[in-house]
Specification:
Elements lengths: L5 E4 L9 H11 L4 E6 L11 H8 L6 E6 L7 H7 L3 E5 L6 H10 L3 E6 L17 E5 L14 H14 L5 E5 L4 H10 L3 E4 L1 H5 L3 H9 L2
Parallel strand pairs: 1-8, 2-3, 3-4, 4-5, 5-6, 6-7, 7-8
Helix pairs in contact: 1-8, 2-3, 5-6
Length: 218
């Protein structure tokens, strides 16, 4: 089966001082989504964006906002992110006790719902909520900072998740985030990924439109 590979640049690697211009660069490149990494300084050792900032950013892009919550108690913030302009919300299975309830709540808000797994978290953690997921985000670095190196053994984890989804006949998308570049994108997509999150590799690229075309051609 032929899958369309999507590109979701992470604005964690953008120039925060000129975010309106950076969002236009993302849109003009032909990328598919804007990936928004939300960190609270507790679940991960870094702080990034809150809902008011994303609400301001929302005015400068027509692309779907893919909000990745790297925060404790994500259920407390779902409505705030919807109101800020999120189109898709993923939260970490490691950060919540009632994943099924919160995935359902996100869908009831009219948004796409997803679960994120840290590198060490086994796939069995998502097995019983997979039907409620529009996407599963596999972290291929330890979350908290951009610019890290892709953890190579996680290629096998992508392949196993692909087999799990296909065996159930689901349309759940596999998103991969962490250390992705054109040098490893082919192997990652061949393993079963549908969406590639690129931060440093995207914003460092001289020809971002060409990068987007090459991702789409994988």
């Amino acid at each position: 089966m032929t899958r369309k590979i999507l590109l979701a640049p992470s604005i964690l690697s953008a120039d925060f001082a000129k975010m309106a211009e950076e969002l236009k660069v993302v849109e003009d490149s032909g990328a598919d989504w804007v990936h928004v990494d939300v960190m609270d300084g507790h679940f991960v050792p870094n702080l990034t964006f809150g809902p008011p900032l994303i609400k301001a950013f929302r005015q400068h892009s027509r692309l779907p906002f893919d909000v990745h919550l790297m925060i404790e108690s994500p259920e407390r913030w779902l409505e705030a992110w919807r109101d800020a302009g999120a189109d898709r919300i993923t939260f970490h299975i490691e950060a919540c006790r009632h994943a099924h309830r919160y995935l359902t709540a996100v869908r009831e808000m009219g948004l796409a719902s997803g679960i994120t797994l840290n590198p060490q978290t086994p796939l069995c953690a998502v097995e019983h909520v997979l039907e409620e997921c529009d996407q599963v985000l596999l972290m291929t670095v330890n979350p908290g900072f951009g610019g890290q190196k892709f953890i190579e053994p996680l290629i096998d984890k992508i392949s196993k998740l692909r087999a799990m989804i296909d065996a159930r006949g689901l349309k759940t998308l596999i998103q991969v985030d962490g250390g992705i570049s054109l040098q490893n994108a082919q192997r990652i997509s061949a393993a079963g990924a549908d969406i590639l999150v690129m931060g440093s590799a995207f914003f460092a690229a001289e020809d971002k439109s060409r990068l987007a075309r090459e991702v789409h051609s994988l």
